[in-house]
Amino acid sequence: MEGSARCSPEELLEFIRSRRSIRRYKPDKVPIDLVKKIIDTTRYAPSAGNRQPWVFIVVEGEVKDKLAELHKWAWPLKEAPLGILVACDEKTSPVTYHVDCANAAMYIMLAAHALGLGTVWLNTLRVVDEARKIVGLPENYVPIALLALGYPDEKPEPKHRKPLDEILFLNKYGEKL
């Protein structure tokens, strides 16, 4: 899809379904102009009241490696050329900052996918204070997600998804659509 001016609704839906969590990356450096394009696109993510309570910290080198050691599931960041920490200001959006930043993280993942890059979401909610300290975030910012980013060095198969009849209801839980 990269470079195409338009796509059909079905092509767009297939593009969304084709995104995968990438845990293995090629060593190739990601050009900063692509990172800026991804974040520029991410500015359009929805947030409650359009508060846009987010900041994005691109991490590489020693800072990236320290974040990759925060917990055992953050190891893909070590392999990735860079990462993006998504943090939200809980004072700007006290009720919805988690959701606002989750929306922004998803926009990053989709924009990266559109540009031929891979990402994986690495949870930071269990290591908020440690992550905050590594990147120098003020106390009112909560690191919601850490995304490894780079050129994929794997092509994971789609994982099992629950059937629609298990998750889709009409008006009330349990009433099939």
Tell me about this structure:
The structure is a single chain. This protein is of the alpha+beta class and 177 residues long. It has one domain: NADH Oxidase (3-Layer(aba) Sandwich), CATH 3.40.109.10. It has 7 helices and 4 strands. It has helices spanning 9-17, 32-42, 61-68, 76-79, 97-114, 128-135, 164-167; strands at 54-59, 82-89, 118-123, 141-150. The protein has a 4-stranded antiparallel sheet with strand order 1-2-4-3, with helices on both faces. Helix 2 (32-42) packs across helix 5. The longest helix has 18 residues, at 97-114. The model has no long low-confidence stretch (mean pLDDT 95).
Identify the notable features of this structure and list them briefly.
NADH Oxidase; four-stranded antiparallel sheet; 177 residues
Overall geometry comes to globular
Strand order of the largest sheet: 1-2-4-3
Strand content: 15-25%
List the uncertain runs. Answer: none
* Main sheet summary: 4 strands, antiparallel
Q: For the residues shown, what is the average pLDDT? A: 95
Q: Structural class from helices and strands? A: alpha+beta
State the CATH topology: NADH Oxidase
Q: What Rg do the Cα atoms give?
A: 17 Å
CATH superfamily: NADH Oxidase
Termini separation (Å)?
A: 33 Å
Give the SSE string.
HHEHHEHEHEH
Assign the CATH class: Alpha Beta
Q: CATH architecture, please?
A: 3-Layer(aba) Sandwich
